[in-house]
Known about the structure:
Layout lengths: L2 E5 L3 H13 L3 E5 L2 H10 L4 E5 L7 H11 L5 E5 L13 H7 L4 E4 L4 H19 L4 H4 L3
Parallel strand pairs: 1-2, 1-3, 3-4, 4-5
Amino acid sequence: MAxxxxxxxxxxxxxxxxxxxxxxxxxxxxxxxxxxxxxxxxAGQFDLLFLDIFMPGMDGLxxxxxxxxxxxxxxxxxxxxxxxxxxxxxxxxxxxxATKLGAVASLQKPFRADALxxxxxGCLKSAQTSDAPQSDAARRxx
Length: 142
């Protein structure tokens, strides 16, 4: 069971993700914007964050930068409802930008429940593996 923070300005998205994660056995906290997310993040210990990119006030990319300075290793899954056009003159691919800034996964809204749960499982397993101590054999030079 993981402690997960969902940051999204859309209450319907918050509720949907929260229900999926709670049914999977996770504990969930909510924040409606970037400033609130930083306050909630500081007050708790989180294993994973869901972070919407486009929110009023402090957007998801700025929020992620602040969180990375406080806890660089926490996995972040970014989500966005903006469609990305294949036209090179269209707006940038913000999901791709977020992964370059440190997000470990991204989901385009609307997403499927199985895709969301697979992203969570993959991020949590990856975080556990990187936190696991190395055995003596793995630390010895060859």
